[in-house]
Amino acid sequence: MKKLLVLFLLLNHFCFAKTFRRLKFFDASNKAIHYVGRIDCSNPELPRFWSPGVYFYTTFVGPDCYVVLNDEVNYGVMHNYIEIVVDGKPRRIMLSAKTDTVWVAKNLSKGKHTLLVCKDTESGIGYLEVVGIGCRKLVNEKDSSKYLIEYFGDSITCGTSSDLSQTPCGAGRWEDQHNAYMSYGPTVARALNARWIISAVSGIGLIHSCCGMKITMPQVYDKLMLRNDSIEWNMNKMQPDVATICLGQNDGIQDSTKFCSAYVKFVKTLRSKYPNTTFILLTSPMADENLNKVLRNYLLSVQKEINNEGDKNVYHYFFKKRYYHGCDGHPDVDEHQQIAAELAPFIKQIKHW
Predict the structure, then answer these.
(1) What's the CA gap between 347 and 335, in Å, rounded?
(2) How far is CA 224 from CA 116, 120, 167, in A?
(3) Does residue 277 contact residue 241 with C-beta atoms inside 8 Å?
(4) How many Å apart are CA 90 and CA 84, to the nearest integer?
(5) What is the pTM assigned to this prediction?
(6) Which residues form the domain of 192?
(7) By 3-state DSSP, what share of the chain in percent is helix, strand and coil, each rounded to 5?
(8) Cα dihedral sign for 20, 23, 25, 28?
(9) Cα–Cα distances in Å, from 261 out to 212, 218, 243, 255?
(10) Of 139, 165, 187, which residue constitutes the final position of a domain?
(11) What is the largest CA-CA distance in the chain?
């Protein structure tokens, strides 16, 4: 029995080695590989990104394909999760090494197949670098997305603490329940045939962040990884058609004048960067009854002031219920789909998409 197992492993290794050799390798700068999100492309051979939800996509010719990624392995122990989507079918995996060769397709048909790889984990888990893709051939086909939506927010928007499919709450590490791809933002975008950018980080607030965090969103919104020590992100690179702002959960109930004034100022700052973008101010999907009531009043006041000053391209949306069945009171993956099911029709209505 042992000899048979060894023989099987040797044959399996031989088959994959043979497959590996017959595939061509295309480095990360290949024009058939398209990138979306806050990405450091100072070295085009190794595009680097931290933010959850950053993704790249391409079309490859089957039957086999692999991706090579560098994982920062922050603090020597943290590994990023990624979503691999082949022909529209997603699967989530955790990387396991400093450099990972991930087989994304095996023994598919010999025709064309779509591939999308999305970073599921937050900035604090560390960066990813794309080394390249191995396959028979890459085909330079851009997706059919007509629009771009950016989502400013906190851990909810990141999809943190939402995915319990592999590790239950209270087990494993913090990053084990991250799933940006299945969070409400990308889900809305896919429903509306749009690309997405997640500009969010756990714990952050508008004027008060939680958990000892010393930054707020207005201080870091224009940084590559939304940290003070991060390099600046050129916001002219990708002008969104719509930008949502989902802040306030970590602020809690604040002085109304102080909070609303800061919110108005933040929207005006974003407007200076995005002159044609439609802004939507969101309540927190996990807010309790007291915070939800306060946030509704805040957002109505903020929108009214901005509209009265002549900017009519600012709206609000109040979520209909509380979503809190993930870890630490966050929405779980199913609830993110429900949140998206609320928000997508509203965006479609106001934008006439």
Answers:
(1) 19
(2) 21, 17, 29
(3) yes
(4) 5
(5) 0.94
(6) 147-351
(7) 30, 25, 40
(8) negative
(9) 23, 12, 19, 10
(10) 139
(11) 79
pLDDT tens for residues 126-182? 999 999 999 999 999 988 899 999 999 999 999 999 999 999 999 999 999 999 999
Could you tell me if 258 and 167 lie in one domain? yes
Indicate whether 17 belongs to any domain: no
Residue 194 structure tokens:
């749009």
Helix ranges, 111-245 (H) = 155-158, 184-191, 217-220
Instruction: Kindly report the CATH number assigned to the domain that includes residue 64.
Output: 2.60.120.260
Instruction: Quote the DSSP letter at residue 107.
Output: S
Q: What is the pLDDT of residues 95-130, one digit of tens each?
A: 999 999 999 999 999 999 999 999 999 999 999 999
Number of domains in the chain: 2
At 66, list the tokens: 């692999």
Residue 330 vs residues 217, 241, 279, 284, 333: alpha-carbon distances, Å: 20, 27, 24, 10, 10
C-alpha to C-alpha distance for 36 and 34, rounded to whole angstroms: 7
The pLDDT tens digits for 256-281 are 999 999 999 999 999 999 999 999 99
Give me 273's structure tokens.
């960067």
pLDDT at 12 over 50: no
In a domain, residue 255? The reply is yes
Token output for 169: 């709450």
pLDDT score for 298: 99
C-alpha–C-alpha distance, residues 121 and 74, integer Å: 12
Residue listed under structure tokens 């122990």 = 77
Alpha-carbon distance of 301 to 13, in angstroms, equals: 64
Query: Is the separation of the CB atoms in 63 and 106 below 8 Å?
Result: yes
Q: Which residues of 266-305 are buried (b: 16+ CB within 10 A; e: fewer)?
A: bbeebbeebeebbbbbbbbbbbeeebbebbeebbebbbeb
Mean pLDDT of 61-70: 98
